[in-house]
Each structure stands twice: as structure tokens, then as C-alpha cells.
Amino acid sequence: MKTEPVKGFRDYSGEEAKKRAEMQKIIVETFEKYGFEPAETPVIEYEEFVRGDNKNDEAVSDIFSLKDKGKRELALRYEFTFQLKRLMQNKKLPYKRYEIGPVFRDEPVGSARFRQFIQCDVDVVGAEPRQEAEVLSAINDIFQQVKLNPIILVNNRQLLNEILESEKVKTENREQVLREIDKYDKISEKELKENLKKLGAEKIIDLLKKGESYFSKFESYKKIISLMDYCRSYGFEVKFSPTIVRGLSYYDGNVFEIKSKGIKETLAGGGSYTFDGTPCTGISFGLERLSILAEVNTKKESYLVISINQDREAIKLSQKLRKNNAAVSLFYGKPSKALEYANAYSINKVVFVGEKEVKNKKFTVKDMDSGKESALKI
RNA sequence: GUGAAUGUAGUUUAAUGGAAAAAUGUGCGGUUGUGGUCCGCAAGACGAGGGUUCGAUUCCCUCCUUUCACCCCA
Fold it and tell me: In Å, what is the separation between the CA of A167 and the C1' of B37?
């Protein structure tokens, strides 16, 4: 019997699992602080719906597909945004929701790439452009709380189109040109130019490097300037990067990408798009990648109540502590084993419940870090 | 998906064409109420399947895992 996890899937336990749980707590709290409400959607959807209109989208070719007994053509969700098409119905706008949950992609795996990962997604349906800054601020907040320095890059899809238009790049080549531009940071400029030359767009790279003086003549650039301005009001900076493209084909306005030192993979991505004529904006990030760099405090105050042949009293005491919201485990056995147990699971307080304590109705708490004992107050 | 590398106890690392070693972790114990020290005992591995061979963990083949690159992406 094979017990190992499937390629690209894995278990989390111990410290790692604690860290992930703690991070999710921070994420939920922050999203709610920004007025987003939670939503839960199915993992399985009709394949047709998952694919949507993005038939040419490479990412969509990486979906896991399956069939049920009724021979329905189904698929595992590979992101959350498309499900908004259903959630947004009959909602007063702007509808602000977040969702945290597993998504699945049948694609190559790597150290920071999995086939199942927890995606944390926030969107505003019925968004004004200035709400892009709100969404970015929420994400920035989360990153700050886990001691990360995010580098937030922004660009605009239409701006790229305008530039390709003005350079008279053939329509049929544009998609490929964008894909090449996206490689800007990965391959040498020489190589990039050669690739672009084949597509009749070798001048693009030099143009993108020109900066403000060149971009300001395009209408879409104003949207970037405006976004940068709003972000400054929130107290953080975003950086204009004309070479970020983003894959998901529904983006049609500003697009975002968050990077950080210490990881080559993108931490978060998002942008503005239009569903049923409604302008929306959203961003999402993967918990696993964030977790690689995040620093969170997983130490919590917790108790180990040790029953030394005083089970009834020990249980009573545990329940009292739990009523005060303490995290309590019970241990039946020898004190030396109990202390070892407490160390193994980083339980920082132990209470002995033995004949002596029960008789005197006095319990002492031992702090596992300092070794000091003090009277237990409930 | 393609190409390259990889695969030994839960984890980290040895050795070998001829009975697989250690550290750490785990379980039990050290005569029964105080820990991260120490001592003893125990359980625990050659990714899977084929082939070559008297004999394969070691050589060969296939598959799988992991890692890297391409493609794309959180």
C-alpha cells in the first residue's frame, strides 16, 4: 500500500502547521479589518465554468479535471476569482469578499510550487480604481505583520496595448510580445531583443526603459499615477514596472505583482478586471510562499494539567482554566514524563494535581521557561 | 508535459557485488511527585517492479518521488 502523498501534495504538522494556522488568523483578521466578508465556495465546479472564456489562457490548461458517476465534466478550482461570477449576483455593490482555501493546479512542481496550495484572495466587485489601493493596502498590512518587506509592482494592461499599438506591432504577434516582455528579469537583454526582433518589436524594450517622459503621453499611464498617489495616502509605496504582464487573461486594467527578497517566485498577483460589465479588482497570494519567509510568533500560553492519581480534580481544574480561554491538555502519569511531554509540545505552563494540592486546595503553576513556580490564580 | 540530477530508519548522514552503521527522534524502564542531563532496553530503512548474477541496497531497464531548467504561475 502506497502511503506517500501524491506528487505536488504534502502534509503539514508540528511547528509548520502551527505557523500556517497563525498566519491564517492574521490574514482573516486583517481582511475583516478592511471590511471584507468571508465566502466559501466549492472545490469542484463544472469544467466549463472553471475554464471560462479564457480558452487561450495557459494557466487554465493546468486544471485537474474529473468526472462524477453522472458523467458530468468537472474540474478542481485552480483559483477563486471565476467563482465570483456566481457570488456577485444580487449583491449590493461594492461587494467585498475574501476567501482562503485550497486551489489545485496540475502543473510542474518545485520548491515553492505545489499542486495544492492555500490561496488567500480578496476582491472588490463594483470597484472604483481608487479601491485598488485599498486592496493593496490590506495585503501590505498582512505582509508587514509577518515581518516581510513586500516589493509591490504595478503596471497597466491597456498601457502595454497602447504602446504596442503606437509601435504598430502586428495584432497576431502581440500576445507573444507580451510574453517576451514578461521575461525581462529572467533572461539577458540581448536575448530578449533577439526574440522581440523576430516578432517585429525590437524597439519595445528601449521604450519601456525610457521612463516617465515617454509613458506620460499614454492615457492609461494616468491610472498608474493615480494608483501610486492613493497608495501613498495609505502610507506605502508601489513601484511602476512596465515589464510585468500577468497571465490570467481577464485582467484589463492595472495589474499588480508582489515580490520579496529571498524568494524568486512571485508572492502575490492581481489586478483589475471586468465581470458582466462590472469593474472589479482583486489580489491573491499563496500561503505556502508567504510562509517560507514569514516570521510569526507561534508561542502561546498553554497549560498541561498533570493528574497524579487525582483525575477528577484534574479534570475539574482543566475545565475551569478552559472557561478562562486557556489552552489546556490533561496528562495522566508520572511527573517526569509529564514535563518531558510539555517540553516536546512547547507547553509553557504545568500544574500538578496530586494528593497534597487537593488536600490544601492550593495549586501551583510551574513556568517551563523559567522553572519558577507560583500560585495558580483562576 | 520535456530534459538533467536524485532516492538508505520519522529526520540527518555512513558503508558495501556476500548477513546494512550511527546520530537524533520515538516507545518502555532506571522501584513509583518535578523537565530539556545521564544510563539501559526495544521498535524502525536500502522508493516500487523487473533483469544480469551463485548472490544486487550496490550494475542495467521501466515506473515513481524530490530538486533544477524550459513553459507557466501563488
Answer: 75
